[in-house]
């Protein structure tokens, strides 16, 4: 089991618990079965070898003995008879059958038997040479007999290997019968030698010595075999050896052995009459003894089979019984524990997630219904565990409900605090707007714009808190807004906005309902890019229409992230998890994911070619608006009246400097083509873009003859008399008649935040009681230009009017930076018209400042030019 046993299932552990006794019983059964089956297998193997190898080798030995006897006669008489040739044919057939059996059983035989088979095969290879010596007359009688004897010695060694009986008594009898067969071979050798010698009645000394050796071996083997054979098998042999024929045979043996010279004794002349019948009798006894031995082996085989059946049957029954009992016990216990496991998994994977989803949707949850009692069954211990787990499950569900209620309460507190903060920030932005309009000192104006910027960022953070709480910010627009203004407003809410470079964007409109969230989303991505990149590098914002919507890219040149971190962040953006109060380092990431999910926007982070990070935001077509949505605005854009306004429009085009880096970077401006009033108002698409050179370190707005020319506003044209409500006159020149910047003058009127400076501030307590600020859309039509009054009036510091100024409330960027207008702002106020001397002084100051700016920052402009055409 080892160290990993703790990870095993309960079924596996129960299986191991029951496996040990089962294995012990099985091993004992296998041991008994092996003993009995081993005997039966050995008996079957011995029987199979006898029926194949034994029969073939016995036939081979018989034919070799017959050919040897005839060869002795033929070598002596020098005559090759037809009978001798037929005998050779029978011997060849026996050799062929033996070799076939050898090829079939050699691979599966034991090493000892395989060695005996190989030796016999090798000896048979010399048979052809023996026959050639006989046929050519170059071999002696003793040499021929010796050659056949060597082959038969190998055959008899093979017989010894075939005696493999598992029963000891039968093995002893079989060994004795094998010795009797070897003694019969010695008699056959004596017979072959004497039959050849009877032809010429001569026996050489070498042949006499060989005969004496054969006789001695025969006597030894007979005596040993008789001592080992039992009464049933040895009785017939004893009768034969005590017969007169065998006595005459031994007398002739002794006479031949004791003879001298090369002549046969007289007693040898009756050799054939005595030896041949005796040999036939011994062959009959061998056959009878083999039959009796086979009967004994059969009885032994029957007993072995019975023992195998009993051992196998009893053992199998015991093993099966043990398996059945073990399986039933283990399955019962495992099922009881598996039921508890299923209940735990159901709680963890089904009930609690479903409960959490319901709690997120604000549904009421009944703990009794969600945590029913677990069925108690099985052993007492299992029932106790079931009751304990039921208590745990109920406690877990109650804790989840309590946690959800706590989270809901915390979210409500966050929303309430954020709404109150929004109300205060809204009033603060209105106050700052009025202060900016009254300020004349450039340094004070810069400080006010810096406070304005900080306030706008605070407002975005308040909206982020609302988003984290699951609610939606209050800002919304009914009419479409150009994407360029949305991007500008987002950049204006970033602290390090000067490092942000915006590439030319196409004329695309966004649906008003999604403008606030998309602005917040882009601001979060841009701020993240500025924070995590070196301060001397630029952050580039690009956008373009693609097949599936509008893509916005925010690219920085920071250190970037690794593939694993990108994958983790993209997964959180695609499926934002529930907000965790402990994960405070990823608040912006959570806000981006929540906003993207709300509008079906896909946000992906990837490595930038510069080593930093590129954030790609794909806006679906559902949040894009058709260009025809600006037709209402276009109806109010008419050609200004002839005279002074026409000359003014030609000398001072409706354009101003965009917020950007100081130093005269080229800035994008929007212009709207105007048609004569006689042709009527035509629907307009999103305005086109041009670029003008920066003049000073701060942006300026141009106000002429009571009409302010808004920088980069979608409606940057002067409306004719009576076209809309009166716009406020704003002082655009500071000390020395130099131009100064005007907040939100570059935005379209429908996006500007209406300042309610002239209205009395709300009671702070009233705002807190409401818990949130209520926003409404500005009454000015989308894209409408700020119109001139029909009868100019003189205002004080540009703030006199019935409903306050038309400046923006809560500009989040630098001085004059674009920002989307808060809904609920009003653009109605009185205007003031300047005298010709003031207008002339204003344009002179503007021209001088422009010339000075180009002289001072011409090189910087040339280095950072975007390639767009410069206005002259």
UniProtKB/TrEMBL annotation:
Residues 657-684, 703-872 are annotated as: Disordered. It comes from the Bacteria. Pfam families: HATPase_c, NIT. The chain crosses the membrane at residues 304-327. Keywords: Kinase, Membrane, Phosphoprotein, Transferase, Transmembrane, Transmembrane helix. Its EC number is 2.7.13.3. GO terms for cellular component: plasma membrane. GO terms for molecular function: protein histidine kinase activity. One of its GO terms (biological process) is phosphorelay signal transduction system. The keyword Repeat does not apply. Residues 513-623 form the Histidine kinase/HSP90-like ATPase domain. It catalyses: ATP + protein L-histidine = ADP + protein N-phospho-L-histidine. PANTHER family: SENSOR HISTIDINE KINASE TRCS, SENSOR HISTIDINE KINASE YKOH. This is histidine kinase. It comes from Planobispora longispora. The lineage of its organism: Bacteria, Bacillati, Actinomycetota, Actinomycetes, Streptosporangiales.
